[in-house]
Amino acid sequence: EASVKVIDGKKVAKDVRDEINAEITRMKDSIGVVPGLAVILVGDRKDSATYVRNKKKACEAAGIKSYEVCLPENSTEEEVLKYISDFNDDPMVHGILVQLPLPSHMDEEKILHAVCIEKDVDGFHPLNIGQLAMRGREPLFVPCTPKGCIELLHRYNVEIKGKKAVVIGRSNIVGMPAALLLQREDATVSIVHSRTKNPEEITRQADIIIAAVGKPNMVRGSWIKPGAVIIDVGINPVEDATNPRGYRLVGDVCYEEAIKVASAITPVPGGVGPMTIAMLLSNTLLSAKRINNFK
Amino acid sequence: EASVKVIDGKKVAKDVRDEINAEITRMKDSIGVVPGLAVILVGDRKDSATYVRNKKKACEAAGIKSYEVCLPENSTEEEVLKYISDFNDDPMVHGILVQLPLPSHMDEEKILHAVCIEKDVDGFHPLNIGQLAMRGREPLFVPCTPKGCIELLHRYNVEIKGKKAVVIGRSNIVGMPAALLLQREDATVSIVHSRTKNPEEITRQADIIIAAVGKPNMVRGSWIKPGAVIIDVGINPVEDATNPRGYRLVGDVCYEEAIKVASAITPVPGGVGPMTIAMLLSNTLLSAKRINNFK
Ligand SMILES: NC(=O)C1=CN([C@@H]2O[C@H](COP(=O)(O)OP(=O)(O)OC[C@H]3O[C@@H](n4cnc5c(N)ncnc54)[C@H](OP(=O)(O)O)[C@@H]3O)[C@@H](O)[C@H]2O)C=CC1
Ligand SMILES: NC(=O)C1=CN([C@@H]2O[C@H](COP(=O)(O)OP(=O)(O)OC[C@H]3O[C@@H](n4cnc5c(N)ncnc54)[C@H](OP(=O)(O)O)[C@@H]3O)[C@@H](O)[C@H]2O)C=CC1
User: Fold this and answer.
1) How many angstroms from the chain centroid is the CA of residue B166?
2) Which residues in chain B show pLDDT less than 50?
3) pLDDT digits (tens, 9 = 90+) for B119-141
4) Is the domain A143-273 a CATH 3.40.50.720 member?
5) Other C-beta atoms within 10 Å of A183: how many?
6) Which CATH fold topology does B32-116 show?
7) Other CB atoms closer than 10 Å to residue A101's CB: what's the count?
8) Which candidate from B127, B170, B172 shows the least CB-CB separation from A127?
């Protein structure tokens, strides 16, 4: 256990944010441009409000100007589209985020597609995903959470090329783009999902595991090859009477068991979570640089 | 060996073409529309000319009107773009194919992107690939060769859901979209490529193998799990003095060995090859139906 490295996402995210901060200062000093991120929140879901507040705080700390629009639950699609269209045209805004989920009376796909691709810092547009999937193409933005996973591997000098990687989960926002990214870096990738038979048998072959399922402690110690590196994306609340809130957060990987087998692992919280926001700031900076042709 | 099924791509392709033919007649009789496919050939590569000629012949046989443009090697990008733009606007044309490779002085990506996505029957546009990769989205067209591979599995009642599939090769036109298609049908997919260590070990676990590498006989009998189903996309010329042409075509899978282990296998030639053109006709029909809102 002594040699197991706990991958400190909080620390890496701070390093990344410091670097972003320095770049933003350099850009501001040299061309007078400050990156701007617009966030649109519809409805009054508590968790969404928390996410938006955290994003805003992180923007401010990094020197990114944030523009926030909060609309009531019963807003119309047209109102949301109008804001998006204004932000698309606004030269002060370099990234536009629509906080999901939207109220059920709205067409999520239609609204997300209204964000112009140059400002789609989430990187969820199918054109962007296609470019991620294709050899010889470059996506405009890499989706934040998978980008954060790979950044952690890079910063901890985990070799990806030629390694066997298993991604558990294939959602549009985490699992699938994470698999595409690993493949771009020449890992041999297998994707495990809810229809997979014997997921443990496949997972046990992996040198690198990315788990993004949403099932607390699903990946047990016996699923893990000794020495594997584990990135645990899951954030799952489980009841915990000893915790003042009555619950605590755990990952998709059983940390206590995994840490005895893996060579490195991200904790939950403090692993991938902080990286996601850092990558959002990184994408916003990237966008501001690209739009202003600043190198 | 008696129980091994040789997957007869020629026969299936003929069945598909007959069905297409019937649909085209029905559409013509009911709304007077005949599907049209435009093919643009630049330069005088012999193999490209052969492909174009075969496509044209197949179109005619199926009742699709083909429009052919042959431009000299030293044409300009603008000339090609002009033809594409005319075909984009032409209501008689429902599919546009630019035969690859283009002469080296042309920007392939730029030219392919000029084809409007509603007529991109090859399905290579990144927006289309993104939609193929994403859950809950539907691509306008599925690329022809991978579509042909899956169609063969369907017509031979090979169950895909929950099966382990290995795709060898990850090109934009075959391997990668084939993997995405298998995943859409709930296979557990692993992708083997040139950086994969121990490809045989991974391949040996597969219930379904799709090989699209371009290396004659690379997949040996020992790579194959008894009872696996094999789709061999490779078309490789190898020297053969006994053949009047001096060569013959073989696949990426060593057929003589594979047929002793597999439960079903496509031959080369006569497997995937004939399906590719059949799927091009299928995509052209699909496009004509969609553009004319014909069900
Ligand atoms: N750290 C961060 O910043 C972020 C964390 N998360 C967390 O990551 C987790 C996953 O999120 P997300 O991708 O959005 O979730 P989704 O629910 O969209 O996707 C879950 C995926 O897991 C697969 N799955 C479900 N059950 C099983 C099973 N028993 N075995 C194998 N695979 C299974 C599903 O398969 P199928 O496709 O077959 O249904 C699906 O592909 C959640 O805990 C979420 O909170 C998410 C985003 C950001
Ligand atoms: N039947 C039909 O209608 C068609 C047949 N074909 C045939 O299919 C074959 C593949 O075509 P295409 O996809 O265009 O070829 P590409 O050359 O574009 O791609 C070949 C793929 O195979 C991988 N590869 C190369 N060497 C190895 C190896 N030793 N082990 C594992 N993987 C390897 C490459 O990996 P990496 O990405 O790492 O370089 C690459 O992803 C060819 O024989 C072609 O003629 C193609 C199209 C249509």
Assistant:
1) 18
2) 1
3) 999 999 999 999 999 999 999 99
4) yes
5) 24
6) Rossmann fold (3.40.50)
7) 12
8) B127
Per CB distance under 8 Å, which residues of A are interface residues toward B?
Answer: 109, 125-137, 161-162, 164, 170-172, 176, 180, 183, 186, 188-193, 195-197, 202
Q: CA of A181 to nearest chain B CA: how many angstroms apart?
A: 13
- pLDDT reported for residue A3: 65
Give the integer Cα–Cα distance in Å for B113 and B46.
25
Closest CA to B179 of B217, B157, B150: B150
For residue A181, the chain B residues in CB contact (below 8 A) are none
Q: Is A219 helix (H, G, I), strand (E, B) or coil?
A: strand
Return the ligand 2 atom nearest residue B174 CA. 13
B265 Rama class: left (phi>0) / alpha (psi -120 to 50) / beta: beta
Give the C-alpha separation, B77 to B106, whole Å.
6
**Can you tell me whether residue B112 is helix, strand or coil?**
helix
Question: What is the rounded CA–CA span in Å between residue B173 and residue B171?
Answer: 5
> With 80 as the cut, is the pLDDT of residue A4 above it?
no
Residue A135 Cα, gap to closest chain B Cα (Å): 6
pLDDT for B211: 98
Beta bridge partners of B274: none
Stretch A65-69: mean pLDDT: 97
What residue type is B184 in one-letter code? R
User: Do the domains B32-116 and B143-273 sit in the same CATH topology, yes or no?
Assistant: yes
What are the tens digits of pLDDT across the range A150-207? 999 999 999 999 999 999 999 999 999 999 999 999 999 999 999 999 999 999 999 9
Pocket residues for ligand 1 (CB within 6 Å)?
Answer: A 145, 168-171, 173-175, 192-196, 199, 212-215, 233-236, 272-273, 276
Establish, for the pair of chains A and B, how many residue pairs have beta carbons separated by less than 8 Å: 99
Is omega for the bond preceding A101 within 30 degrees of 0, making it cis? Answer: yes
Task: Say if the Cβ atoms of A136 and B202 lie within 8 Å.
Answer: no
Residue ranges of domains in chain A: 32-116, 143-273
Cβ-proximal residues to B204 (8 Å cutoff; 6+ apart), any chain: B222, B223, B224, B225
Out of A97, A233, A252, A282, mutate this one to test ligand 1's pocket (max ligand atoms within 8 Å of CB): namely A233
Residue from A81, A142, A147 nearest A116 by CA? A81
pLDDT of residue A1: 47
**Structure ipTM:** 0.96
